[in-house]
From TrEMBL:
SMART domains in the cross-refs: MR_MLE
Cofactor entry: Mg(2+)
Pfam families: MR_MLE_C, MR_MLE_N
UniProt-listed GO biological process terms: carbohydrate catabolic process
Domain Mandelate racemase/muconate lactonizing enzyme C-terminal: 199-318
Keyword Ligase: no
Record-given protein name: Enolase C-terminal domain-like protein
Provenance organism: Calocera viscosa (strain TUFC12733)
Keywords from the named record: Magnesium, Metal-binding
GO molecular function: hydro-lyase activity; magnesium ion binding
Keyword Magnesium: yes
Amino acid sequence: MSPTITGFDVKDIRFPTHLTGVGTDAMNQDCDYSAAYIALHTSDPALSGYGMTFTIGRGTETVCLAIEQLATRLIGKDTETMFADMGETWTFLMSDSQLRWIGPEKGVIHLATAAVDNALWDMYARTRKKPLWKLVSDFTPEEFVKSTAFRYITDAITPEEALEMLRAKEAGKKEREALVREIGYPAYITSAGWLLYGDDQVARLTKEAIGKGFNHFKMKVGADLEADIRRAKLIRSIVDDPANLAPGKVIDPKSIEGKNAGPTGSVLMMDANQVWDVQESIDNTILLAPTKPWFIEEPTAPDDILGHAAIRKALKPYGVGVATGEHAHNRMIFKQLLQADAIDVCQIDSCRLAGVTEILGVLLMAAKFGVIVCPHAGGVGLCEHALHLSLIDYMCVSGSMERNVLEYATHLHEHFVAPVTLNNNGRYNVPNDPEQGYSTHMKDSAFEEFGFPNGTYWKSAAEGKSNDISL
Ligand SMILES: [Mg+2]
């Protein structure tokens, strides 16, 4: 008899990143990187699953309430029965009609579903003593398809087509695994170009990033076009200068193909975080084009599929692509972005889409439409999740990591039991701990300090605030 779900703890945790400018962009200038977190417990005291969804402060308590509603539905469920058909388990999670009403498949309820589905996958991987990417990579094509959410996307990809694609990638899996273990998974850095960082800080962090082996750099744009152009030129002047090249750094020309790379092989990306209208996106990006960005990310509203398509078409003559996805709230948005030829780069988010089950469907669609997947990972815990997803894409779905780059942000990894690490060449090391599941487990010490509102940090902050008021 396998363990059954017996209970859960839901926690609100917030890191005061607004104090440092970390995470700032044209839309979000006071974010506190946060998570709505769940530990799912079973009748086996040694078996729990950990999941989270990423938030940026106020409102996290609302997501926690939704997680409690969803997790309650799992009490008494047999774990092995759920693991045997994760597609069906996901459908069950989505099928409470009263909870569905407050979505459907979007907003708070979908974020909450992500946390619960992530916790189940984490638990599943732990029971098999494999990190999540390895669990899924070892699936047969049939098991993979059974674990995928296909509802509403069969006009773009059918389970039969998916099976064929997955079978075609079975050959070479061993070689791919050996290669990625040896050289790591490619990454890009966002942390040098947060919007509220001053020019000196941007210059210093860009140089540091080059020293760590990065050759893909992302900067935030969209608040002040003149400042954007100035900062883009500043970053270009550093990354294009051969004198700043890391010694021994070799860049495979195929890895920068079609990316507007500079003379040293450096790639610049720009992220506008949804601030512009469609025509503004086109006009402003054309003004930024001489600094040679690979793509403009989230130029406009994340739901505006045809708007993204229009922007992409208009920017094509300028050699600038379009990327989006971190706020694409379900697989149907990705389906339409792909069907409308609206994106060059597919930026799935491990916590915006409702967990691994929904993401597998998006990975399959992106591969079918020939669009590379470069997950969004700027936030607490997102790098930890996204690395598993990129590895699944590489091992089973696209079969390639040549042009892909996975976002890397430097902050808050120390709060995870199994944090991501990078090698000296600016690439992610492959997770290898049989006990690490989906890498979603946060340390108790993190909650003691930053749990909201009763962690030591927030208690003392509240005391400081009340003192101010009394003055
Ligand atoms: Mg972004």
